[in-house]
Amino acid sequence: MSTQGKDKWRVATSLxxxxxxxxxxxxxRKKASDGTIxxxxxxxxxxxxxxxxxxxxxxxxxxxxxxxxxxPASGCDAGRIVSALxxxxxxxxxxxxxxxxxxxxEVSAWTWRSYNGSNPHSKHFHLSVxxxxxxxxxxxxxxLSPASTSTTISRPVPSGxxxxxxxxxxxxxxxxxxxxxxxxxxxSPGQVVVVTATEGDWYEIDAxxxxxxxxxxxxxxxxxxx
Length: 226
Ligand SMILES: [Zn+2]
What we know:
Strand order of the largest sheet: 4-8-5-6-7
Structural class: alpha+beta
Number of helices: 5
Number of strands: 15
Number of domains: 2
Radius of gyration: 20 Å
Helix content: 10-25%
Order of helices and strands: EEHHEEHEEEEHHEEEEEEE
Bound molecules: zinc ion
Largest sheet: 5 strands, antiparallel
Strand content: 25-35%
């Protein structure tokens, strides 16, 4: 329990459970963009963010949102964790913001929509939990990496998704769907790859055709081949 000004507050137990799980899975992870409670600038007056401590029926105000730093070098890949959370359909999830997109369990339930807030959320992901005590204080473990491993990496590749690289100098392969992600390789001009999924203008690539994803490429320089 902590204090901010005169008000006592605490973080929802389910979010502390999540952070403990992530900390033990990725002990070396960076925490620069981690966060729980908002500052008074965000929470003064009409502040309605879930990062603001609110009276939810207990003796102490509760913060029902958490930010976790994206640090793929340590294994703490926000994209992977977020996919696993979404796949789990955990009833505690209110909404998630990650990499310019938002997914809510209430509004357009479980469908990603574009997010145009001033912070693109590409350095961390945001999770808000449902403001109902039996849910936000649940200590049940969250479904994290195992689900994402089985659903994302080993998913069967649909046939007819072969594409050829038509960029004369080849095409950068990036860690995520956007230029803000690090380049992790390069596809050669003329190379034929398998597209396993799309995220807007970006294609998720299986470069070897072995069912494992290798990264993301900008889709404008890929044409489908039969
Ligand atoms: Zn946040």
